[in-house]
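Both lines are quoted verbatim for reference:

——
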Amino acid sequence: MLDVGGDMRVRVLCVVFTILLGDFPGTFLGNPIGTRVGISPFGQATTAYGQTSSKAADEDTVSTDTAGNEPAREDSAKKQLEVIVLGNAQDAGYPQAGCDRECCKLARSNPSARRFATSLAIVDHANSKRYLFECTPDFREQLYLLDQLAPIDSGRAKLDGIFLTHAHIGHYAGLIHLGREVMSTDRLPVFCMPRMKAFLSSNGPWNQLVDLEQIQLKKLAAGQILSLGTSCSVVPFLVPHRDEYSETVGFEIALNECTMMFLPDIDKWEKWEVPIESLIARCDMALLDGTFFDGSELPGRDMSQIPHPFITESLSRFKKLPVGERRKIHFIHFNHTNPVLRAESDANRQILELQMHVAEQGQRFRF
């Protein structure tokens, strides 16, 4: 059972998932996986919707666990896994530097409309652990937001690990806060793919974080399961994107008996050899690239130089799916020009009419 909570400080659209699970062995992009822990088809899911307010030695490769262990069930709401959306904007946040258009004037005049760059936190309440997905330029504010929504005991590490998708600024630039000028963390695990690891190890100021042992780079492998305990595991998968400095991945994250897909950046669905519908079918919730609503947002820019699947393209494609599949979809990673950042927009209405969703900053999902 996935239960959704909220916080009065933020406006959220919430989802309550009731999962009907089956024991289906599966594969992930050709790799065998476990039936419960890891990424596998969990059977059919029905969805109901409602409104609410809102130091170990360095290792080159992380250990993995492919055993299909049955996760322990936790009855207490406190002892759950929780996903918190810490930001839903594109790399530069909202409003964006240098933008004098009406879209950003609105956010500057109304602080409640401002949004951080896309980032998620996974909170393991039972084991008092917190993991960050993406380390954005808004890291300072997002860590504070996480402390407000899911506080931890003072005196322990603020984070237990950071997962990075790729080397575009909105996804790793917040690592600067881990150096001795700011937090001076102690061997904080940073999980990333091989090219991303090489990029951080070979270029300043990031390599200083490695040399001073403020971070430990942990190399991930596509399709390989990383266990974060008996009830949570992560699998990276490669996607086509502008890979100037690193490869790009999405993540499938197993949380107790549910699966969430996090895919904030991809060039175009048709450029990927994997049908996105097949991954939607095998997960219970999908956070997908919604950078641009359509191709008209950046007049004067060549959109082919910054390819993303337009939300209009995704809606046209996904409207053919059964309603139960569409309800899993939450768009995220919105450019400052994207009208879905305004709840009253026609763009938002189009998404909701097809029973898909807009991921909201501060939104919380409990598993």
Summary: The radius of gyration is 19 Å. The mean pLDDT is 83. The chain is about 15% helix and 25% strand.
